[in-house]
Amino acid sequence: MNQVKTNTQNLLQINGSKFIAYGYSIDSEIEVKNILKTLREENKKAVHVCYGYLLNQKTYVEKFDDDGEPKNSAGKKILQSLKDNDCVNSLIVVVRYKTKSMLGLGLLTRSYYNVCDELLKNKNNITIYKKTENITIDFADSKSLNKIIELLKYKNYKNYEINNDESNVKLRVKSDDLGYFQSIFSIKVQ
């Protein structure tokens, strides 16, 4: 698991558009609002200020905003980049300045994703946490097993063992996800 370091930046320029990604380590949604307010004030000439964040404190929260860009073309791509890079308690805001040239939807979505991905691939911009826990999730029937499997796919867990004889699923989870799983299922930590 990773966390973006505060005040990290990355710049991407494409066809006259400038995408500036700002990374922040966050602890609350109030902190997100304050950061967004500051960035909007500092970038008054920007056309869009889009963001995505993952917050896992007492509850798991993920949010994004396209700020007027076509639906799911900006904020969702920022959020996906955070997930793909295994980040939590992290916010990325992308400020976009553009000229009159149009990028097209495909290039636009790739640009939002790539500016974030480049920021996160630079190991100087993230803190890496590797603590994990082994857990067992019990299930009563195939319906509850399907719910567990869907949740594991959603959270990008691919390595798990289903034991039908004992009616449980065993897997290794990130310590920060432990509270999330405990809030949904009856689990045993090993």
What is the strand and helix layout of this fold?
Elements: E1 2-4, E2 8-14, E3 17-25, H1 29-42, E4 48-56, E5 60-65, H2 75-84, E6 90-97, H3 105-121, E7 126-128, E8 132-138, H4 142-154, E9 160-163, E10 168-174, H5 178-184, E11 187-189
Antiparallel strand pairs: 1-7, 2-3, 3-6, 4-5, 4-6, 8-10, 8-11, 9-10
Helix pairs in contact: 2-3
Describe the structure.
By secondary structure, the chain is an alpha+beta fold. It contains five helices and eleven strands; from the N terminus they run E-E-E-H-E-E-H-E-H-E-E-H-E-E-H-E. The strands form three sheets. Strands 2-3-6-4-5 form a five-stranded antiparallel β-sheet, sandwiched between helices. The chain has a four-stranded antiparallel β-sheet with strand order 9-10-8-11, covered by helices on one side. Helix 2 runs parallel beside helix 3. It is elongated. The two termini are 20 Å apart.
Biggest sheet layout: 5 strands, antiparallel
Computed structural class: alpha+beta
Q: Indicate the percent of residues in helices.
A: 25-40%
Q: For the CA atoms, what is the radius of gyration?
A: 19 Å
Query: Span from first to last CA?
Result: 20 Å
- How is the largest sheet built, in terms of strand order? 2-3-6-4-5
